[in-house]
TrEMBL record:
GO terms for biological process: adenosine 5'-(hexahydrogen pentaphosphate) catabolic process; diadenosine hexaphosphate catabolic process; diadenosine pentaphosphate catabolic process; diphosphoinositol polyphosphate metabolic process. It comes from Clarias magur (Asian catfish). The lineage of its organism: Eukaryota, Metazoa, Chordata, Craniata, Vertebrata. It catalyses: diphospho-myo-inositol polyphosphate + H2O = myo-inositol polyphosphate + phosphate. It is found in: Cytoplasm. The gene is nudt4. This is diphosphoinositol-polyphosphate diphosphatase.
Length: 190
Protein backbone atom coordinates (compact mmCIF):
# COMPACT_ATOMS: atom_id res chain seq x y z
CA UNK A 1 0.00 0.00 0.00
CA UNK A 2 2.98 2.29 -0.19
CA UNK A 3 1.72 3.87 -3.45
CA UNK A 4 -1.60 4.89 -1.88
CA UNK A 5 -2.10 8.20 -0.18
CA UNK A 6 -3.43 8.17 3.38
CA UNK A 7 -6.74 9.51 2.10
CA UNK A 8 -7.11 6.64 -0.39
CA UNK A 9 -6.35 4.12 2.35
CA UNK A 10 -8.87 5.71 4.73
CA UNK A 11 -11.53 5.65 2.01
CA UNK A 12 -11.79 1.84 2.01
CA UNK A 13 -9.65 1.30 -1.08
CA UNK A 14 -10.52 -2.07 -2.59
CA UNK A 15 -8.11 -3.00 -5.38
CA UNK A 16 -10.38 -5.60 -7.03
CA UNK A 17 -13.64 -3.69 -6.66
CA UNK A 18 -15.80 -3.64 -9.76
CA UNK A 19 -18.43 -0.93 -9.91
CA UNK A 20 -21.77 -1.76 -11.51
CA UNK A 21 -23.91 0.72 -13.41
CA UNK A 22 -27.47 0.66 -14.70
CA UNK A 23 -28.47 1.38 -18.30
CA UNK A 24 -28.57 5.13 -17.65
CA UNK A 25 -25.01 5.27 -16.26
CA UNK A 26 -25.92 5.47 -12.56
CA UNK A 27 -23.73 3.56 -10.12
CA UNK A 28 -25.83 0.88 -8.43
CA UNK A 29 -25.73 0.91 -4.63
CA UNK A 30 -27.66 -0.59 -1.73
CA UNK A 31 -28.04 0.42 1.92
CA UNK A 32 -29.97 -0.48 5.05
CA UNK A 33 -31.70 1.51 7.70
CA UNK A 34 -30.69 -0.72 10.62
CA UNK A 35 -33.18 -0.66 13.50
CA UNK A 36 -32.87 -1.95 17.08
CA UNK A 37 -36.33 -3.53 16.92
CA UNK A 38 -39.62 -3.67 15.02
CA UNK A 39 -40.72 -0.29 16.41
CA UNK A 40 -38.20 1.32 14.03
CA UNK A 41 -37.63 4.21 16.44
CA UNK A 42 -33.81 3.93 16.74
CA UNK A 43 -31.52 3.70 13.72
CA UNK A 44 -27.84 2.76 13.58
CA UNK A 45 -25.52 5.18 11.78
CA UNK A 46 -21.81 4.75 11.09
CA UNK A 47 -18.99 7.25 10.84
CA UNK A 48 -18.01 8.28 7.33
CA UNK A 49 -14.74 6.87 5.98
CA UNK A 50 -13.99 10.25 4.33
CA UNK A 51 -15.11 12.44 7.26
CA UNK A 52 -14.89 10.44 10.54
CA UNK A 53 -16.70 13.19 12.49
CA UNK A 54 -19.82 12.81 10.32
CA UNK A 55 -22.49 10.07 10.36
CA UNK A 56 -23.92 8.14 7.40
CA UNK A 57 -26.32 5.30 6.63
CA UNK A 58 -24.28 2.12 5.94
CA UNK A 59 -24.29 1.09 2.29
CA UNK A 60 -22.16 0.71 -0.78
CA UNK A 61 -21.75 -0.40 -4.36
CA UNK A 62 -23.26 -3.53 -5.85
CA UNK A 63 -20.87 -6.20 -7.09
CA UNK A 64 -21.45 -7.86 -10.48
CA UNK A 65 -24.10 -10.61 -10.25
CA UNK A 66 -25.16 -9.37 -6.79
CA UNK A 67 -28.78 -8.57 -5.94
CA UNK A 68 -29.56 -5.28 -4.14
CA UNK A 69 -30.74 -7.06 -0.97
CA UNK A 70 -27.53 -9.10 -0.83
CA UNK A 71 -25.46 -5.95 -1.27
CA UNK A 72 -27.34 -4.19 1.53
CA UNK A 73 -26.79 -7.07 3.96
CA UNK A 74 -23.09 -7.39 3.03
CA UNK A 75 -22.48 -3.65 3.38
CA UNK A 76 -24.03 -3.35 6.85
CA UNK A 77 -22.01 -6.34 7.99
CA UNK A 78 -18.76 -4.75 6.70
CA UNK A 79 -19.48 -1.14 7.69
CA UNK A 80 -21.60 -1.47 10.86
CA UNK A 81 -20.76 -4.95 12.15
CA UNK A 82 -24.37 -6.03 12.45
CA UNK A 83 -26.52 -8.86 11.15
CA UNK A 84 -30.26 -8.99 11.12
CA UNK A 85 -33.51 -9.69 9.35
CA UNK A 86 -33.83 -7.95 6.00
CA UNK A 87 -37.23 -6.31 5.69
CA UNK A 88 -39.02 -4.24 3.10
CA UNK A 89 -37.49 -2.18 0.32
CA UNK A 90 -38.07 1.41 1.40
CA UNK A 91 -37.32 2.84 -2.02
CA UNK A 92 -34.73 3.54 -4.69
CA UNK A 93 -33.10 6.93 -4.25
CA UNK A 94 -31.34 8.85 -7.00
CA UNK A 95 -28.48 11.26 -6.48
CA UNK A 96 -27.87 13.26 -9.67
CA UNK A 97 -24.72 14.93 -8.30
CA UNK A 98 -22.82 11.69 -7.78
CA UNK A 99 -24.80 9.63 -10.34
CA UNK A 100 -25.87 6.97 -7.79
CA UNK A 101 -29.09 4.98 -7.48
CA UNK A 102 -29.39 3.37 -4.06
CA UNK A 103 -31.81 0.61 -3.05
CA UNK A 104 -32.63 1.24 0.60
CA UNK A 105 -33.95 -1.57 2.79
CA UNK A 106 -35.11 -1.87 6.37
CA UNK A 107 -33.12 -4.29 8.55
CA UNK A 108 -33.94 -5.33 12.12
CA UNK A 109 -30.67 -5.99 13.95
CA UNK A 110 -30.37 -9.39 15.66
CA UNK A 111 -26.60 -9.53 16.20
CA UNK A 112 -24.01 -6.85 16.94
CA UNK A 113 -20.33 -7.75 16.57
CA UNK A 114 -17.77 -6.37 19.02
CA UNK A 115 -15.16 -5.91 16.27
CA UNK A 116 -15.94 -5.79 12.57
CA UNK A 117 -14.10 -5.23 9.28
CA UNK A 118 -14.32 -1.43 9.11
CA UNK A 119 -13.78 -0.86 12.84
CA UNK A 120 -10.51 -2.77 12.65
CA UNK A 121 -9.33 -1.55 9.22
CA UNK A 122 -10.31 2.14 9.25
CA UNK A 123 -11.54 2.85 12.78
CA UNK A 124 -15.18 3.24 11.79
CA UNK A 125 -17.60 3.94 14.66
CA UNK A 126 -21.33 3.26 15.02
CA UNK A 127 -24.05 4.84 17.13
CA UNK A 128 -27.79 4.47 17.73
CA UNK A 129 -29.92 7.57 17.06
CA UNK A 130 -33.60 8.40 17.54
CA UNK A 131 -35.12 9.04 14.09
CA UNK A 132 -35.53 12.83 14.48
CA UNK A 133 -31.97 13.18 15.75
CA UNK A 134 -30.61 11.03 12.90
CA UNK A 135 -32.38 13.21 10.33
CA UNK A 136 -30.83 16.35 11.87
CA UNK A 137 -27.35 14.77 11.94
CA UNK A 138 -27.59 13.62 8.31
CA UNK A 139 -29.23 16.73 6.86
CA UNK A 140 -26.07 18.88 6.84
CA UNK A 141 -23.73 16.65 4.87
CA UNK A 142 -25.83 13.70 3.61
CA UNK A 143 -29.28 15.07 2.74
CA UNK A 144 -30.04 12.02 0.58
CA UNK A 145 -29.49 9.80 3.64
CA UNK A 146 -31.80 12.05 5.67
CA UNK A 147 -34.38 11.56 2.92
CA UNK A 148 -34.27 7.77 3.48
CA UNK A 149 -35.49 8.36 7.04
CA UNK A 150 -38.10 10.90 5.98
CA UNK A 151 -39.54 8.26 3.65
CA UNK A 152 -39.91 5.90 6.60
CA UNK A 153 -43.58 5.38 7.40
CA UNK A 154 -45.31 3.40 10.10
CA UNK A 155 -45.88 -0.17 9.12
CA UNK A 156 -49.44 -0.72 7.95
CA UNK A 157 -49.40 -4.29 6.74
CA UNK A 158 -47.98 -6.07 3.74
CA UNK A 159 -45.67 -4.17 1.44
CA UNK A 160 -45.33 -7.03 -1.00
CA UNK A 161 -45.64 -5.83 -4.55
CA UNK A 162 -43.58 -2.66 -4.16
CA UNK A 163 -42.36 -1.40 -7.49
CA UNK A 164 -39.86 1.31 -8.22
CA UNK A 165 -40.14 3.63 -11.19
CA UNK A 166 -37.74 6.42 -12.11
CA UNK A 167 -39.35 9.87 -12.04
CA UNK A 168 -36.56 11.70 -13.80
CA UNK A 169 -36.62 14.39 -11.10
CA UNK A 170 -33.62 16.51 -10.16
CA UNK A 171 -30.87 16.39 -7.58
CA UNK A 172 -31.15 14.06 -4.62
CA UNK A 173 -34.80 13.27 -5.29
CA UNK A 174 -35.87 9.72 -4.55
CA UNK A 175 -37.35 7.71 -7.35
CA UNK A 176 -41.12 7.31 -7.29
CA UNK A 177 -42.35 4.43 -5.20
CA UNK A 178 -45.67 2.73 -5.73
CA UNK A 179 -46.97 0.21 -3.24
CA UNK A 180 -49.86 -2.17 -2.99
CA UNK A 181 -50.66 -0.65 0.43
CA UNK A 182 -50.10 3.10 0.36
CA UNK A 183 -49.74 4.11 4.04
CA UNK A 184 -50.56 7.72 3.23
CA UNK A 185 -46.96 8.39 2.25
CA UNK A 186 -46.17 12.06 2.64
CA UNK A 187 -45.73 13.74 -0.72
CA UNK A 188 -42.46 15.56 -1.21
CA UNK A 189 -42.60 19.09 -2.58
CA UNK A 190 -39.57 21.02 -3.79
Amino acid sequence: MENLSNLEYMMKFKPNQTRTYDGEGFKQRAACLCFKNDREDEVLLVSSSRHPDQWIVPGGGMEPEEEPGGTAVREVYEEAGVRGTLGRLLGVFENQDSKHRTYVYVLTVTETLEDWEDSVNIGRKRKWFKIDEAIRVLQCHKPVHAEYLRRLTPRCGSTNGNTQEPTGQGDNTPLHQTTSHDCSLPRLHR
